[in-house]
Amino acid sequence: MAIIEVKNLVKTYKIIEKEEGLIGYFKNLVKPKYKEFTAVNNVNFSIEKGELVGYIGENGAGKSTTIKMLTGLLTPTSGNVIVNGIIPNQKRIENNKNIGAVFGQKTQLWWDLPVIESFRLIKKMYKIPENEYRKNLKKFTELLDLEELLEKQVKNLSLGQKMRCEIAATFLHDPKIVYLDEPTIGLDVFVKEKIRKFIKDINREKKTTVILTTHDLKDIEDVCDRIILLDKGQIIYDGEKQKFKDTYGRYVIAELIVNNIKDNIILNNAEILEQNDNKLKIKFSHDETTIVKIMDEISKFCNIEDIHMKEAELEDILKEIYKGVHTNVKNNDATSKNAI
Amino acid sequence: MLKTMMQLAKMQFNQYNIYKSNFYLFTLNRIVEVIVYIFVWQAIYSQTGNAGGFTLSQMVTYYILAIAFSSIATWGINETMAHSIRTGQINKELLNPLTYFQYYFGMNLGELAFAVVIGIATFIICAIFWELALPVSFLNFILCIFIIILGIPITFFIQMIVGTIGFYTNSIWGMQIFRKAVIQIFSGIVAPISLFPLWFQELSKFLPFKELIYTPINIWLGQVDYSEILFVIIKQIIWGAVLYIIAKKFFNHAIKNITTNGG
Ligand SMILES: Nc1ncnc2c1ncn2[C@@H]1O[C@H](COP(=O)(O)OP(=O)(O)O)[C@@H](O)[C@H]1O
Ligand SMILES: [Mg+2]
């Protein structure tokens, strides 16, 4: 049985419609008008123990809303959530024992006190055995470089330091499942890298199930094996990350340094993305042509000095999907079903 | 659970005491209050010679104890809670493996521990300058403390009720002032209950507040029958249960707002 099971999940928010003026104000008091907004619309997925899942989508796609329902903080409008055999919003405390969660920059650490005091509280709340606590603390201190921070007051820490401590606090009781809702927002690359490595290490060692939402797709590239792509409250892709890239990112971007451009360059099976005096950026698909053919074509127009190629990254692909290039992802739900 | 409570209490205590000057300031504040009340009553006694059945030296003891106990009666976590609601911090606290009430009860204990420390310091300093009546017996001393302890759940649930109002308004400042005023008047901090009109005395017999200050002091001074003490104990337990139910129902109702409409 999967550790997280989500069936036909729907969340509809009721928003009070404010009317203008004094009369509107009183009308609202007597009989408020509600507007409904469906943030999560019939979502289905199941996640196995130990999976690293990237839950991605544009701003407002419904990621946080889903995570809140998974943690039990939000009651679904309809549909089911079962986490580790429990319905989270019905048995919140029991569910809380199994999970850890990070929400953006909100912290569970006590502002005025040294970090270690909050860790001690966590130890007692979750009844972590002494030796287990020490082992974890030692390991986390090493992995996240907390040595200097533990005795400092939280309010004196920088954002990156605070987030490292927060991540440690979240994993301290060996939760079965961890929800990370934009944990890397506003952090510098070095901290981001530490956190990514930490998540991967802990997952490898303890089979912790992790669901991660982020706007930095490098997080997903580095950490996740599977992605669930959400668009306007609906899942448009769910499957292996590599498969996603293979399906929608079967193209290569090449940057060429050239000189002596003679004519307007026209290529048959490649798209020119950028061109100036001595630089040419093109995109082509392996299905349609090969690099050798392309270079042949290009050399008719100019001399090639150097060439640099890279595979399409998640970010490139997603940008295209949002722009509507891959209409099949958006419109054909069957694609996502097949991809699972 | 006990260990968690102790850690929470310790943390809340330290949070208060992070600036040692907090301790000195609060204690000084209490002592100034004692001095003001004692001056006022000395003036009254020089005119009338008697008030509410207390001698002047009993009245001095009354105020020193009343002020020493006053923080225990009026302090608590309602502002901390309202702040957590306002900032959305509550979402993190709801993910703790213990109930919101348990979590805040632990914090409340820390706050009260700080109130006790200030109370004791106030008492000791005042005992140096004024002659204080000691408890009439050891049993009375124990009963006095016991009645105060029975008040802890009562003030805690009231704190939770006021804190929960934070779900509905941006500021609970007004409610907090109201809560404090009610407790100060009905508990006997402002003046001994026996000085108030009869209807007020009758009313306060059934409210749980005079057991926060007035009754424990009178037990200390040996002016309460044991049968009445028994009545008071039962009354406080019933109030504790009633306020628990009200606080819990109110909180659960408010929390539904969050869990259906989002934070
Ligand atoms: N409490 C709320 N009340 C009304 N609408 C909300 C509430 N929370 C979120 N929404 C709306 O639901 C949509 C999804 O929000 P969210 O789940 O936070 O998206 P994401 O995390 O993917 O950016 C957004 O359009 C947002 O405005
Ligand atoms: Mg979000």
Architecture overview:
The complex is a heterodimer of chains A (340) and B (263). With 340 residues, chain A is an alpha/beta fold. Chain A has two domains: 4-244, Rossmann fold, CATH 3.40.50; 250-311, Alpha-Beta Plaits, CATH 3.30.70. Chain A is 38% helix and 30% strand. Chain A has helices at residues 21-30, 63-71, 92-98, 115-125, 130-144, 159-171, 189-206, 217-223, 241-248, 291-298, 314-323, 327-331, 333-339; strands spanning 4-17, 33-47, 52-57, 78-83, 99-103, 177-181, 209-213, 226-231, 234-240, 251-259, 270-276, 279-285, 303-311. In chain A, the strands form three sheets. Chain A has a six-stranded mixed β-sheet, with helices on both faces. In chain A, strands 11-12-10-13 form a four-stranded antiparallel β-sheet, with helices on one face. Chain A has a three-stranded antiparallel β-sheet with strand order 2-1-4. Chain A starts with a strand and ends with a helix. Chain B has 263 residues and is mainly alpha-helical. Chain B has one domain (2-260). Helices cover 76% and strands 0% of the residues of chain B. In chain B, α2 packs antiparallel against α3, α2 packs across α6 (100-129) and α7 runs parallel beside α11. Chain B is globular and about 65 Å long. Classes of the chains: A alpha/beta (340), B mainly alpha (263). The interface between A and B is medium-sized, with 29 and 25 residues. Bound molecules: adenosine-5'-diphosphate (ADP) and magnesium ion. Adenosine-5'-diphosphate binds at residues 13, 15, 37, 39, 57, 59-65 of chain A. Residues 13, 15, 37, 39, 57, 59-65 of chain A line the site of adenosine-5'-diphosphate.
